[in-house]
């Protein structure tokens, strides 16, 4: 390692390009040729942007961020680019939001899988830490919310400081960033310093409005349940009626249902940002400050963000350039008050037979109890780099040092009034850090006027460290002391009961060493052929398979310059293609260790008991699963073909990409080794393919001479997901309530087919072989039970009769926008759509399955205050016998599967550029820009889905009723530069 580090310090390699601020455009534009003479407001600086293999003119188009009061980069990018799917499962400010580029390459069974499927975020060349490490889920009973602040790290990015965003979807584009980029790359370029002195001020203020809701009280719920009792209930079942509904004179549940007065409220959103730039062509700077406040419309949620940035560019001598950049933020998040999350964190189940009251006077009493609680969630982020470039003739050296650091803390205290007189406190602190050293050397060799070869070699080292400390405890004796105080001598607890305090800590390290080489051959101005070879060694792989070698080739043919140079209709036409292999990064270091020992003395309700009969010990990972030797790298194999075209002097521009991307040799926990006590064994051999097409079109509908400009843009992605193979040559495997079957998609639901209801016992089919009735796993079906389809004809309904159907992710997704401008006035409409997506309405299934939910006192029995809110149409469902042993309202049937395609008008905006007006009106004014605007966001949604907003679903495709609503927001703003 010391030798590699020594080489890394002296292999200074790179290139110098000009950093220049340019306004974002919705049109894909050609890359401009770098000139040697700087413009008055620019400075020659060294930028840490790795050259990609693809040399297409428009394949690296910038994404224009809309005028949208987004709280995170994820939210700002939603519906802006073909092939990018952003899942916003809650409108709560600052919560996790996940992105997928061209679908998912692995089945999403857990929150850890979700993190593993995320693209790499690169900010000014820094591969930043964009997600908290999922290893903390190992000590949790539920993965509803990660311990700690659980704040979206991408919410820490100062969006006002972003100059452009690029989506790298092709392997020829993202392979230079190595295995961490196997899910694609989102490249963010921030604004840099300029020689011209300038002060900028950007701000907006808005009001977020909750959507109107219909509430109900105990009378409505009683009427809903009476139809089941009147039809099916026995006398004993009638006597066991829900206690909270028995007394119709009880105003706790039969009084006014006005809880929304405290739960939903109009909320303010605002942003204030200021920056200053100045300097000379030899050195310049940019300094920025920002404050963003985003208040949620439900449950008194909030996110406050403070951001600061500093950029310094220097050119002390002609052959040397240097750039330094620092971006930091602090986020303070006020979370929701879900009972589920509170109980999951506390690991204690109280009596759940009595739900929260819909009466605001009584519900307000619980909110008063929350005033005694403490829930402080703080997150800090720091990203920075120093980059130096040296140029000696045709040889260019570059050395880059980057740092990405985040930390988060949560101090939680729930008083005795919230948990059956039992106080609960927990404290969490965790951090993630990444150090990157990247060195490159570039040499350009001109054979003759028609032939040129550019060579590049590089070496990089990445050090990743993740750690957290977590402790929780019960019973402190008083609500006046809300922290877990320790004695200064022995560090033992002085307030909370010692035997009821539990501590956890974990640390994982992931180091990576890489070497790569690249060559670009150019023939005239119409042919380019490129090749990349890289070697990556990662500590999270086993010693016998530590290294992986990735080759990538690409080619580009400019048909316009070659064959159509005199054609006036075709402005640009290019054909390009690529093929490559790239190793996939492994987050968890468990797989590098082979057979191992873990803490696993517990049981299904509490798996993390560290001792047996008072003796601390370690055992084999019987619950987590067996890990063997000789685990190979998983890797991507991608092939793509693309067309870039521009017609009629750029009035119509388009990009078409066809792709096939397969993730091979992935690990999967398969049932096995039960004879040794294991629940599963991790084995390689799972291959998942994503194939499809991306389409981007931009057109100017009116002639250039027309004073009115009308530009439309369309983005679309069609993606087909297919499971190609499973470990050990299996054709299918059952994991939980999911089925993976070769030849089908990994995001499909596995459900029973529902064909109605048996109205009488004689309607149930009879097996002619033994005269037995059709049964569900041995229980005969009868009147009031569902008509589930017996697919295999054995007269027994079970897992063999389930069918793969629907998709958890959209098959087609994209965006459509219109921009109309007249002189200095602009009007814009941005639409966003998903097609071919389905939702399993678990919330509706829970509403009907009230008997089973209330008879089992577990985490699924919890009723939030939103239980008293109408969702969907209950009249469209059959009235089954809710006491039947077959559980007729089980969620895993197509009765609750719905089409969740939608079209959403995400933003309508109106803007006016007042720069010229102000400069004419005030002669001494020196205003570079003064732009005012107003927007309406989340205007409307068209969807056949009968439930809530079709975006509010979790990664499994279930609508559980959780997730705060995405509000309609009205904003006014100004962008000013002096």
Protein described:
The chain is mainly β and 978 residues long. It folds into three domains: 2-206 and 266-594 and 629-741, Maltoporin, Chain A (Beta Barrel), CATH 2.40.170; 595-628, no CATH class; 753-801, no CATH class. 10% of the residues lie in helices and 43% in strands. It contains 15 helices and 45 strands. The chain has a 22-stranded antiparallel beta barrel. The protein has a five-stranded mixed beta sheet with strand order 3-8-9-6-7. Strand 13 and strand 14 form a beta hairpin. The two termini are 51 Å apart. Residues 1-46 and 53-60 have low confidence and may be disordered.
User: Percent of residues in helical segments?
Assistant: 10-25%
Q: What's the number of helices?
A: 15
Q: Proportion of β residues?
A: 35-45%
CATH topology of the largest domain: Maltoporin, Chain A
Rg from Cα: 30 Å
Supply the CATH architecture of the largest domain.
Beta Barrel
Unreliable stretches: 1-46, 53-60
Taken from the alpha-carbon principal axes, the silhouette is globular
**Average residue pLDDT:** 90
- Distance separating the two termini: 51 Å
Major sheet summary line: 22 strands, antiparallel, barrel
Domain count: 3
The number of distinct β-strands equals: 45
Identify the CATH class of the largest domain. Mainly Beta
Domain TonB-dependent receptor plug: 68-185
Keywords: Cell outer membrane, Membrane, Signal
Protein name: SusC/RagA family TonB-linked outer membrane protein
Signal peptide: 1-19
Please render the helix and strand layout as text.
Elements: H1 2-10, E1 17-19, E2 43-45, E3 62-63, H2 73-77, E4 84-87, E5 98-101, H3 111-116, E6 120-123, E7 126-127, E8 162-168, H4 171-174, E9 185-190, E10 198-209, H5 218-232, H6 235-239, H7 243-246, H8 251-254, H9 260-263, E11 267-279, E12 283-295, E13 302-317, E14 320-334, H10 339-346, H11 360-370, E15 374-392, E16 395-414, E17 424-446, E18 451-474, E19 501-523, E20 527-538, E21 547-558, H12 559-563, E22 570-583, E23 611-612, E24 615-616, E25 626-627, E26 635-647, E27 652-670, E28 681-700, E29 708-725, E30 732-735, E31 738-741, E32 749-751, E33 754-757, E34 775-776, E35 779-780, E36 786-788, E37 796-797, E38 803-805, E39 812-822, E40 825-835, E41 838-840, H13 842-848, H14 850-855, E42 897-899, E43 902-913, H15 915-921, E44 929-942, E45 968-977
Parallel strand pairs: 6-9, 25-28, 34-37
Antiparallel strand pairs: 1-2, 3-8, 4-5, 6-7, 8-9, 10-11, 10-45, 11-12, 12-13, 13-14, 14-15, 15-16, 16-17, 17-18, 18-19, 19-20, 20-21, 21-22, 22-26, 23-24, 26-27, 27-28, 28-29, 29-39, 30-31, 32-38, 33-36, 34-35, 39-40, 40-43, 41-42, 43-44, 44-45
Region (Disordered): 19-40
Protein name: SusC/RagA family TonB-linked outer membrane protein
Signal peptide: 1-19
